[in-house]
Specification:
Length: 261
């Protein structure tokens, strides 16, 4: 059962932004982050490698001509954001950020909202509601390709994550892409799994790890782009001077798929 995102529990979004070096946190957030890093020091590298992958993936997809992105579980703004990377290639790129944490939504809306970059509250456990959201429909053209991003979020979604992605996929036009990272039960030690599950259980987003095969199955209907499903740092690495997050990590697997039908 997911926990409420009403500020009464440590926020996975604030902990993650803090791990990236992009947020000052205090109180219950600080306590959870310090406990997590103390017991599981590589979690900081995992967050940073994840973010580096996300930015490279958006750049690569934008380079194929995709100018629209739907970023699910976007987290707090951390520069560069998805829209910064997309707009470096396509100044008129349109981006919708979705998160189920109201504090993330209000923070994003306060920093950038309008002119083709909008943030809406939505929950991946109800993908139809996201697809029907008036601001999503007003910002994105579903008859043209969309970069669908579900990075470091599906491991917070219990149950049938494949069904969630499939219903989103069915709304997409050919040429759309799916970008995923997901914490993997087969690449983490038992100790790491125990620590991660215990600490995130207290946050707004308890963790649901999946196997490599289950993560691969999220790409049903998509063709995986080379190099396939790999640790985030191994996905199309760039020269160190171009990489803001050079860290390596083993906790998550990452991939990008293209929708060809
Ligand atoms: C670890 S952050 C990832 C941020 C960003 N995607 C990235 O990788 O840089 C996870 C985000 O997912 C959000 N989240 C968790 N469960 C969610 C759900 N069921 N629906 C939508 N967002 C969710 C959290 O509030 C948090 O902002």
């Amino acid at each position: 059962m997911a926990h409420p995102t009403d500020g009464s529990r440590p926020s996975s979004a604030r902990i993650y932004a803090h791990l990236l070096g992009g947020a000052d946190i205090d109180g219950a957030d600080r306590e959870a982050a310090d406990t997590l890093v103390g017991a599981f020091p590589s979690v900081r590298d995992a967050g940073r490698a994840n973010r580096g992958f996300l930015l490279r993936a958006v750049r690569e997809i934008a380079a194929t001509g995709v100018t629209q992105f739907l970023d699910l579980g976007s987290g707090l703004p951390v520069h560069p954001n998805v829209h910064d990377v997309a707009r470096a290639l396509h100044p008129d790129a349109r981006v919708v950020y979705v998160d189920n944490d109201p504090t993330v939504v209000s923070h994003r809306q306060a920093t950038a909202d309008g002119d083709g970059v909008v943030t809406v509250e939505g929950d991946l456990r109800d993908p139809e509601k996201i697809l029907e959201h008036p601001r999503v429909r007003a910002t994105l053209d579903f008859d043209r390709p969309i970069g669908l991003i579900a990075v470091a979020v599906l491991h917070f979604v219990p149950g049938d994550a494949q069904a969630v992605i499939s219903s989103l996929r069915d709304a997409l036009a050919p040429g759309s892409h799916l970008v995923v990272t997901h914490a993997c039960s087969e690449t983490m030690s038992e100790e790491e799994i125990k620590i991660g599950e215990t600490i995130y259980q207290r946050t707004s987003s308890p963790v649901n790890l999946r196997t490599r095969a289950e993560i691969n199955a999220l790409f049903d209907g998509f063709d995986l782009l080379p190099p396939g499903l790999v640790p985030p740092a191994d996905w199309r690495p760039v020269a160190p001077e171009l990489e803001p997050y050079p860290e390596r990590s083993h906790e998550m697997l990452a991939a990008v798929g293209a929708l060809s039908r």
